[in-house]
Amino acid sequence: MGPIRLSFLWLFAAAAAYLDLRYRKVPNWLILCVLSGGVIISLEGGWSDLRYGLCGFVLGLLLLLPAFVLHMVGGGDVKSLAVIGLFVGPHLLWVSFLLGAAVGGMLSLVILAARYLPRTRRSSGGERRFIPQKAGAWTLPYAGILSVCAALYIHLSLLLR
b or e along 44-69 (b: 16 or more beta carbons within 10 Å of the residue's beta carbon)? Predict the structure, then answer.
């Protein structure tokens, strides 16, 4: 993987992580910009490089499409993994996906624990009162996790060569 491709992947990871954390959404304009940039970068390597990237793209779609159909992940998560697949190809996508799934699973456990731990506050009379939690604030920014894990894994694997 060349430095331009790696830089593009890091930019996507940073933007996707920020937008997914802040707004819980990965906008289509970001996906389309990165997708078109990825195709242009892949074309620079020739048709075989483009074919390899498109195989990763399709694999990324197929990995999360069943979870999307079952309403377990959002559309931005599926599109983000597909774009990551375009950059890294099908072989590195598997490892990146498994790493992102493991990190996402650990963060989900932390979120569940934080959500169900009782939150209390002392009232003016000294008694403790339960504070209910909002359910919408406890979603997992999975596209950001997947993209950062993929970029980190690719970067570290290149450094350790």
Answer: eeeeeebebbbbbbebbbebbeeebe
| CA-atom Rg of the chain in angstroms | 19
Give pLDDT tens digits for 13-70: 999 999 999 998 999 999 999 999 999 999 998 999 999 999 999 999 999 999 999 9
Q: What is the pLDDT of residue 114?
A: 77
* Integer Cα distance of 151 and 161 in angstroms: 16
- More confidently predicted of 89 and 161: 89
Residue 146 and residue 154 in contact, taking contact as beta carbons nearer than 8 Å: no
pTM of the model: 0.85
pLDDT at residue 132, as a whole number: 56
Whose structure tokens read 């892949």? 42
83 vs 138: CA distance, rounded Å: 26
